[in-house]
Specification:
The protein has 134 residues and is α+β, with helices and mostly antiparallel strands. It is built from three helices and five strands. A hairpin with a 3-residue loop joins strand 1 and strand 2.
């Protein structure tokens, strides 16, 4: 994509701290981190989000999560939040598929994700609505 910042990073038009790279993906330090070691894993081919990725790319993303995630665990004695926002309404700010690896350590620094539990959930209706689209 012509104006995609992640495509420019992948093409080495913009410098980055590349932690891992294979034929399908690149893992870089996030320039706006929420924790030390906050990493983005990017498919080299432009996809708007991870739901559009082909299986080879998804497998490469999963492999990179495991390789880089283990390195982050060792480097920072941490847990990890693994996150991918899909579409702007869900917080995706760059419309190129990417996965965040965000270290969470003992001092409580972590991404803040809040969930509000729904009451009186119509599970049968929800189930039917989703199953017809599978």
């Amino acid at each position: 994509m012509e104006n995609c910042i992640f495509c420019k990073i992948i093409a080495h038009e913009i410098p980055s701290y590349c932690l891992y790279e294979d034929e399908n993906v690149m893992a870089i330090l996030d320039v706006a981190p929420t924790a030390y070691g906050h990493t983005l894993i990017l498919p080299k081919k432009h996809y708007q989000n991870i739901l559009e990725c082909d299986m080879d790319t998804l497998c490469s993303l999963a492999k990179a999560i495991q390789i880089v995630g283990k390195a982050l665990e060792k480097s920072y004695a941490c847990g990890l939040n693994v996150l991918s926002n899909i579409n702007e309404i869900a917080g995706q700010s760059v419309m190129h598929a990417h996965i965040h690896l965000i270290p969470v350590n003992q001092d409580g620094k972590k991404a803040h994700i809040s969930f509000n539990e729904l009451k009186d959930v119509p599970f049968d209706e929800i189930y039917q609505n989703i199953i017809k689209n599978l």
